[in-house]
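Hello K.,

You asked for the raw outputs rather than the summary table, so here they are, unedited. I folded two proteins back to back in the same session to keep the settings identical. This is the first:
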Amino acid sequence: MSATKFQSGHYTGAMYDQWSLTQPVVDALSSVKQWINHAREIPSLGRHSLIRHELEIGGRLVPLAIKSFSRGSLFRDMRFRKLGSKAARSFYTAVRLSDRGVGTPRPLAFLDRWDGGRLIESYYLCEYQEDVTSFRDELNRLYAEDPLCRRIMTLLETVATAIADMHDAGVCHRDLGNQNILLRRDGEDAWKDIQFIDLNRAHIADNLSLDQRARDISRIDLPSDFLRVFKCMYFRHQHPPKEFQELELRYRKRFAFHTASRKYRHPVREARQRKLDACLPQAPRGRELWVWDDRSVQAVSTMISKDRHKYYPMANNFMVARGLFKAVHPVYSRYRDLMNQAYRAETNVSGRLGVAVGTEDGVSAQERNLIDQLGKPPVLIRLYRHEHEEMLRRRIDDAVALRKSGHAVFAALVQDRAGIRDPKLWRSFVSTAIPALYGIADWLEVGHAVNRVKWGIWRLDEYVSLLNPVLEVARAHGNFRIAGPAVIDFEFHYLVGLLDMIKEDNVFDALSLHLYVDRRGAPENRQGAFSAVEKFAMAKAIASWSSAVKGDRLIVSEVNWPLLDTGVYSPVCSPYTIPNSHTNDPSVSEDDYASFMVRYEILALCSGFVDSVYWWRLVARGFGLADDTRPEWRLRPAFHAFRHLRERFERVDFVEKMQTSERVRAFRFRDKLDGHGMVVAWAHPGKVNWTPDFQYERLYHRNGDQIETGAGGVELTGSPLYFVGVT
């Protein structure tokens, strides 16, 4: 090891050879006690004092951090004689790290003064670090001021990799709290110079065991799902071994007990610490921590399911049970009636296929060009409470421009946890957005995925606190139609519980849902007894039952399928993914995505249950009609399929669902201009050779390309075909 022992006055110690210390410098170290007596102490949470001092070494003044360790008991001094003092262990561990290229403040020396078997003084000297912060402080800053998942993931990976390097260098820290990891911010999205401090408990070994590694990781303080990700990053983007997971959990529980009992073991010190903590701004924790992922365009869960459930209010169960008790009989009765009416009525399907627009920076000229290629579809624009007011203004300007160019605008007001925690923030948001949208937006959707706590709503009645200011401001500033409550997925028990809490009648002009069926694959696949069509019918029955909904109008305001191989940009793989390891992944190929989209929208509109569908969204790497990965956006098959379906639907009315074999779905339409017929058909599951019982003039692929046909039948697959000029 690159260290040389020395004697300086009353002190024995060792110095790091990289400094090439001269004898005058070594002699000067004997004045360490005077330096400490005349220096201002650096604030520290521990029992040991820390000062900054400048010492001339090699012709330049070097800033040093000098840690003075407090005196211990006789028993400890006996132990220190055998194992080395805290200063010595700090020094030799730092030398080991420095020699192996692992970050730590560059060690200078340690000094011990012994007298009759007692350690009287003990000091560790290293290079003082200017302009550094800690892992703890950076996490707290991000949580409170800049909760962007991408940045948090970058910080976690930077630190996890450094810890792995430290362990690979043969050092087990044994006190690896977030506060003992120093780093420097390198712009908004990167960190560097990871350095480990407080090394006096460290252990050096040639190869660390899983037990030692688990012990260190168990001191890292992160929300449980971020901890899951952190451990994968630590193992170089691999799942941790099962043995490690068990050991880490055991040590974490042990440390949690140790922390909880500290107030009994050190009551005075802990009382003083709690008093200091109360004066400091507290970063969000638990249910108050809300993190935004701009890559998958969603809030992310910071806790694993088990930990989230610890924060669920029991009152939610009562509210849901009460709503179900009231709703079960009338809703099911209405549902059966609706299912008997499915596909029975001729329906105008034009103008009812919309698309969500706007990227992180708003609607760009490039996206406007894509919108123009789609004709004049209704557009959905989300306005986010968590964004800066400048961005809110930009999104409102986008809505104005789209309205002027002939698009119907559906505006969705999206909450965050801060807006729920502080109602003034939400009221300020809606008071800015809603008046500016008068005459621009036909609809306002209140809330977003309100049954997913990652979006900020933990109690059902918190949704009511969002709804009331919107109703108040909307009624004061224009004649808006209101949609909600935007429950996501097939969780209608939550929906009836929530609707039952809204005491005012006719609040919603339409019931809006984010009705995904992606985990079932094709929209025709069933979840129990319910395919997509049955879910539409059940939602419409709930709308009919609830006094909070005027009529039974149903809008699907968000749906898509996640795409394969899009990594963290996929909503089901964010915020972190290990290649080839995602289980229960509902992601589909781009071809299936396009087919499922067309089939979902035809089933929704032609069943007679859904008023309109808004596809989420036009441009997105993980789930959009267009892929913005490259500078030149790539139009996916779904873009062409959506454009073709919209063009056809603008000219036709739905007539009937045709009687076919069980595996064939065929829907007949009538052209509003010339009265000619059109049939859209596909097979599910598998392929079917189908001989239509009608004549047709032309056959088109799902994406709008004409297909040459010969005599005989047609092979139907999951990709819908358009039979045009049907007689």
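The second followed immediately with the same parameters:
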Amino acid sequence: RSSDLMIRKVYHDDIDLYNVPLDDPLAYQLLQNAETTGVFQLESAGMKRYLKDLKASSFEDIIAMVALYRPGPMQFIDSFIRRKHGEEPITYLHPGLENALKSTYGILIYQEQFMQISKEWCGFTGGQADTLRKAVGKKKVALMNKVKPEFIKGAQEVGGATEEQAETFWNQLLEFANYCFNKSHAACYGLVAYWTAYLKAHYPDAFMAALMTSDMRWTDRLAIEIAECKRMGIKVLGPDINQSYADFGIVGGEKTIRFGLAAIKSMGKALIEDIVIPERDKNGPFKSVCDFASRVDNTKFNKKSWESAIKTGAFDRFASRTDLLFNLEEIQAYGGKVQKDRASGQTDLFGLMGDAGAIPEPTLQESPTKVSEKEQLLWERDLMGLYLSAHPLDKYDLYFEENTHPFTMVTAENDGKQVVVGGIITGIRTILTKSNTKMAFVKIESKTAETEFIVFPSLYEQEGSKLAIDNIIKVTGRVNARDKDGNVTSDVKIIADSFSVVSDEKLENYQSTGIKMEDPKEAPKKEFKRKKATVPENIASRLSSNQATKEGSSNNTEKDKTDSVKNSQEKQGTEEVVTRVITPPVDPRSQKLFVLIENPEDTEKLTRIRKLCDENPGFQEIILVLKDESGKKPLRMPFRIDACSDLIDPLKDLVGDTGVVLK
């Protein structure tokens, strides 16, 4: 609705979504390019990968993807895509099935399809087909056993199938019961997905402004959407007390969006729509910050609101943020005095006296200390969820251009090669390994992209103190795009070999070379050698006494082992008593997360599980164990997760402690 209003106001177009063409080239070009951030049901990373491969060209393709991208039928997505592009033959168990399955390239996806098959192939009536739907959809085994003889007989007598073919299809139908989905439901979702793609393709600024308005309290989403605006060539300007409204707004024809005031913390929508905007619309733009203070109710627009508006740049047109904060008490006092006099009627008396009776505006004093640009940017991020007026990395452009590789080099094609990247740390997740040592997964952002590097325990122990949010960092490591089986995937990360903080002092002393880094080369091989370890002098006696206490002196075998250690120590001192092999740290990607699904029909729970997985992307496999009357069936998901407590704890709340296993 928000986008419709903006489109009508700015573009003077009345959009009737129910009558938009379902074959619009711009909409399908957007889908084929997977530019679907903000598009209903189609914006997850996994879905985007499939959309790029699918190259949807019809509304049927969209419906099918909505139905297939769920636990169960996901296993058929690759085959569906290959068949669409002629890379895999479209086959049918029997020619009589073609009419019902040809729109989905021979793959059974919808409940309506097997209902159609039962009528066309088996001669079922509408009532019989619906009975079959209920039996399959609700897994009513007794009812399915009752329907089976009629189905097998009908397929032979009406459809001309052999008994073997009929039995084979029936068994496939039983398997289909684990994930059956009705097409009407998928079509509704698909239609909304198409509408949002259509609006984004034809009215990108209005669509994105409406999207950001709906997500203005979800700062993570807002940051993603503003990054999407930049990718689309749409400017997102900061808040302005004379131009912004409560919601995000667009400047028609300029591909520009103005930040909404209500998106700022301590600036509620009611305050903006009921107090600030009506005053501005009635008596014109605010001429100065003191003019604003005198006209806007100071009991509503309190100190927190003032500070938030100043720190995010809403009053930048009048003075610097530092000076405004320094003079804030004077500004508020002036506004309060004017409003108090106005309420008592004294302003009418002073009005008769002309300028001589007016309360003079205070002169803004220059602040003795200036807030750094970096701190101002942190204000923006804290109050709006993102950097807007500038970026902390702006002054690092030359340094990173000459000393690092662009994030575009961190690709599967460069798997195994060494890269150097630089950026700002925006997220750190630490976990304990099986050996009770810490390792970290660190999200790092450049001005245009983000990636993640992994710090294994040995490096974390040495350099972990350098990892802190907002630190500017340079990382050297090797690109890793392989799963635990050695297969190249699209899940690309950097295994850090070293990293360092790029301090302001280092940046100031940097002398440009004018030379950019060469393309990534093969990473040097690491050799893991035997390392000597020492044993404290009293370890043998402690081992001996502990063992004797536990098992008694009769256990001669263990005593002999202890004596052997002691004798070795006496002969060699404390050197080379124990030799151990230092091996590469265990890659957490070897772990798999198993989640037991007691009721595969519980779509609400499955949706919640999927959302949790999307919020915790990583490199570990997740396998759903679907439970039904025939037993348990493992189903590997086509995406990967980070098996951290943020994911595992909520999963245990959903399915129970015993239903979540990491191994």
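The two ends are 47 Å apart (CA to CA).

Happy to rerun anything if the numbers look odd on your end.

Regards,
P.
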